[in-house]
Amino acid sequence: xxxxxxxxxxxxxxxxxxxxxxxxxxxxxxxxxxxxxxxxxxxxxxxxxxxxxxxxxxxxxxxxxxxxxxxxxxxxxxxxxxxxxxxxxxxxxxxxxxxxxxxxxxxxxxxxxxxxxxxxxxxxxxxxxxxxxxxxxxxxxxxxxxxxxxxxxxxxxxxxxxxxxxxxxxx
Length: 171
Hints:
alpha+beta
């Protein structure tokens, strides 16, 4: 999936480079037209008589086709990126045991979060609740106190981390 995104991005970049080359050729034709043309007419108006006007029209047509391809390319990119990102996206979960111990876990889904905490303890799970990022960071600050800043910074910069982020154990 990621390879498709990279390929589409590469193709789009190649199209943009080609469009740039066409623009520079167009500028060259305009300069040549202004320099050579004795009869002063607007470029592109006399394509039946003037070869430079004809070349200019052809370049404009080609630029239009390339721009259409570039416009279509992002749609593919966005769709492919979304599906690739959805597969990799991590969420925060608040997991609680019957003994009131609580964990903040980052995982791809609720089942994965539950399996992470059951591997860590033999206690029975009371609930697994999906929480937003801000709430997760608040709980990390509450559970960890002074060391929470380092954890939060780590989580912000390591999107692929999965596991127990923070915990508070009730005795």
